[in-house]
Write a structure and sequence with these properties.
By secondary structure, this protein is of the alpha/beta class. Among the domains are: 129 residues, P-loop containing nucleotide triphosphate hydrolases (Rossmann fold, 3-Layer(aba) Sandwich); 179 residues, P-loop containing nucleotide triphosphate hydrolases (Rossmann fold). It is 30% helix and 23% strand. The protein has 16 helices and 19 strands. The protein has a 6-stranded mixed beta sheet with strand order 5-6-7-3-8-9, sandwiched between helices. A 6-stranded mixed beta sheet has the order 15-16-17-12-18-19. It has a 4-stranded antiparallel beta sheet with strand order 11-10-13-14, with helices on one face. Helix 15 runs parallel beside helix 16.
Length: 508
């Protein structure tokens, strides 16, 4: 067994029998080591957080503990409590796996109404059990009663996060692992969930909370482990670890300078002069009895950079689908895109070629096994994956964008081998490679540590200042908008549903 005295700040466990004990645990994924000689114990009465930047190995550790990664080497000992009750793990990957399963089972084309709800939120939580008082308590506390009969593919990221948390709590696990639990939630939901996490930390269920930023470590956590490149670099009492200069340097590195942007790619289209880029007038969207948008009026002029914000499920994603051509509800409404009324003969691809897009779904769905340069080149074709032959000019342009965003050393690397934060930066280069008129960013900082959040916000401002591309930036998180933003589009709840009620502080 490894000599623990050689591991910096390794916590000395007490004499009580650990609930969970890892000894010399290592894990290799796609021929790359992602965990290296992990020695750690969770004792009764302790509440832990695992802190580390993107790519540190936090998710791999959670997968080992929850038995989702079965090829780890070393010794793992679980007390009877964990063996009997199991481990509940709430993360984005869980959401993606559930949505992918429902997509495979979708039989809409064989239905008279051409619509398969798939697994409903209620069924996902209850899993065949009858609802009881605890079920009602939790769905009301997290405000999801109105989506119980919706399919899980038809709710927002934040609503799905709440659903999975309730499912996990009601399963009464022996250990609950929460991966960045506040990600994807609006401000009100974050406040309520923070209270719930505080309650859980003072309760009987042991928790392990995965955190990407020092500020995200809850006060109720007693002990903290820090990972970097799959190795434990510090473990001990929460206050001692957060005060460690080595940990602070790891979590808050300086933001590297960005390079000169490439010359704009020649665009295969011309814009109609003296018209707004986007114009929506009294646009409404309903799905059955559910009103998502009501008489929205929004003009996006040339030279503007817009931040779109509002609570989970308020209609932000629906709004984006209207302007990108993905939503058939746009037909018959007063919507003008790039000077052309919607439905006047333009194709969806005529619209999409004018956008560069980046969102979490694109990130999670990206084709595996590609090189970084190939991922960026695929932006020329608006494909998830590279299926067309590309020319020398396209490859050169992709390389220039990687260099401009500080990613030149990774050009020939496997995209899968990069940290989550670096992958998001590569996808930003992919979105910009064709010099789009509008860069559409839906929660671009979601899932990123503090360093990569600062980096991507700086890159967005760099693009806005040094190109004619205009920004539409969607985010739940206060204080996370780029400095270039000069238009605010805010959704707020009202008695008649969610409406767009404020543009630049003015109500329509």
């Amino acid at each position: 067994m490894r000599d623990k005295t050689k591991m910096p700040h390794l916590l000395k466990t007490g004499t009580s029998t650990p609930l969970l004990s890892l000894r010399d645990v290592s894990l290799v994924y796609r021929a790359q080591p992602v965990l290296k000689d992990i020695n750690w114990s969770l004792n009764p009465g302790q509440q832990w957080a695992c802190l580390g930047p993107n790519g540190a190995g936090k998710t791999s550790l959670a997968n080992v503990i929850s038995r989702q990664a079965r090829r780890a080497s070393g010794e793992i000992h679980r007390a009877a409590q964990l063996g009997d009750k199991g481990v509940a793990y709430v993360c984005f990957e869980q959401q993606k796996a559930l949505c992918d399963r429902d997509k495979k089972l979708d039989d809409s084309e064989f239905r008279a109404d051409a619509h398969d709800l798939g697994t409903t939120i209620s069924h996902l939580i209850l899993a065949g059990r009858e609802p009881d008082g605890r079920f009602d308590e939790w769905i009301d506390r997290l405000g999801i009663r109105h989506i119980l009969d919706r399919g899980l593919r038809f709710v927002s990221t934040g609503e799905m996060r709440k659903t999975l948390l309730i499912k996990a709590i009601l399963s009464d696990p022996g250990l609950l692992i929460l991966d960045s639990p506040l990600d994807g939630l609006d401000r009100a939901s974050q406040t309520e969930l923070t209270r719930i996490i505080d309650e859980l930390l003072s309760g009987p269920i042991p928790l392990l909370i995965l955190c990407r930023q020092m500020d995200d470590v809850p006060q109720g956590v007693s002990h903290l482990m820090v990972l970097d490149h799959g190795t434990v670099v510090a473990a001990g009492l929460r206050g001692d670890i957060l005060a460690d200069p080595m940990v602070q340097a790891l979590m808050e590195p300086p933001v590297a300078p960005l390079g000169q942007l490439p010359v704009a790619t020649e665009r295969p289209y011309e814009l109609i002069a003296d018209t707004p880029l986007l114009a929506l007038r009294k646009v409404s969207v309903n799905y059955g009895d559910l009103q998502v948008l009501h008489e929205v009026n929004w003009i996006f002029q040339r030279g503007q950079h817009c931040a779109v914000s509002g609570p989970n499920g308020c209609g932000k994603t629906t709004l984006l689908s209207l302007i990108t051509g993905d939503n058939h509800k746009a037909y018959g409404q007063d919507i003008t895109l790039f000077g052309i009324p919607r439905g006047s003969g333009e194709s969806v691809w005529d619209i999409k070629q004018k956008y560069g897009q980046l969102d979490t779904l694109l990130h999670l769905n990206h084709v595996r096994g590609m090189r970084v340069l190939e991922v960026v080149v695929s932006g020329f074709f608006d494909t998830i994956g590279l299926y067309d032959e590309c020319g020398v000019v396209q490859r050169d342009t992709a390389g220039q964008w990687l260099a401009a965003l500080g990613l030149a050393p990774y050009t020939k690397e496997s995209f899968d081998a990069l940290s989550f934060g670096l992958q998001r930066m590569v996808l930003l280069a992919r979105a910009m490679v064709k010099s789009p008129i509008i860069l559409l960013l839906d929660e671009p900082t979601l899932g990123l540590d503090g360093h990569h959040r600062k980096l991507i916000l700086a890159a967005i401002d760099h693009i806005a200042a040094n190109s004619d591309t205009q920004i539409i930036f969607v985010s739940h998180s206060a204080g996370e908008t780029p400095q270039c933003i000069n238009q605010q589009l805010v959704f707020e709840p009202r008695g008649d549903g969610f409406n767009l009620v404020c543009i630049n502080g003015r109500k329509p």
